[in-house]
Structure formats: structure tokens, C-alpha cells
Amino acid sequence: MTADLDNVLEQAAAWRGAGKGVALATVVTTWGSSPRPVGSQLVVDDSGKFVGSVSGGCIEGAVVEQGLAAIKDGKTRLLDFGVTNEQAWEVGLACGGKVQVFVERVA
User: Fold this and answer.
1) Domain ranges in the chain?
2) How far is CA 12 from the centre of its chain?
3) pLDDT of residue 32
4) Which of 9, 30, 39, 55 is the most buried (most CB within 10 A)?
């Protein structure tokens, strides 16, 4: 995971250095079966390109959307996905676990 984390942070720095808007998403809590551990990260630029993973693919679309919103408004977000959350089923988190993802704009 360290190599993945390094790639995400390096990409975030490169995009910011190029003048792009950037948001960073980090898994902060998991419960039960979850595809990625706490500390997993995804970075998104203002065009919607992203690097990294917070879920192995099942909630990335929703996280990228919230990352784009954070780039625009500067507000942080704490996203909850789990088996009791209707949105989790819509985005494909049917693994039986729960994941919280913190999203913030990179200044």
C-alpha cells in the first residue's frame, strides 16, 4: 500500500503544480468486509481524472463526484457507504461492510 499511497500523493502534487484543482479522498473508517483498508487514498483533478482507490472500484464514481464538488466549493465531506445505506447498493458496495471516506480539496 505504501507504493500506492506514494503514487497518489505524487500525482496530487504534480496536478497542483500544473495549476489544476485537486481533491484527496481517504478511507478513514471501515467495518466488516471492506475492499480497501483505512488510509487508502484516491486523488482527483478538476477534469475528473483520478489515481488510487478507496474501494476497489465499487464506490469510486460517487467519491470522484464528491471530489469534484469539493474542488469547486472548498468544503470537506465525510461520505458513508454501507449495507444499510441505499446509496451504497446503488454504487455497488454489496460486500457486507461499511466504509467512511473523507474528501478534501488540496490547497
Assistant:
1) 2-106
2) 13
3) 79
4) 55
The pLDDT, as a whole number, for residue 97 is: 77
Low-confidence ranges of the chain (pLDDT < 50): 1, 85, 88
The Cα angle at residue 73 between residues 92 and 25, in degrees rounded to 5: 40
**Which has the closest alpha carbon to 4: 29, 41, 38, 31?**
41
For 30-66, b where at least 16 C-beta lie within 10 A, e where not — what string?
A: beeebbbeeebbbbbbbeeebbbbbbeebbbebbbeb
**CA 46 – CA 65 distance, rounded (Å):** 10
Strands lying side by side in the sheet with 77-82: 50-52, 41-45, 22-31, 98-106, 77-82
State residue 95's pLDDT score. 58
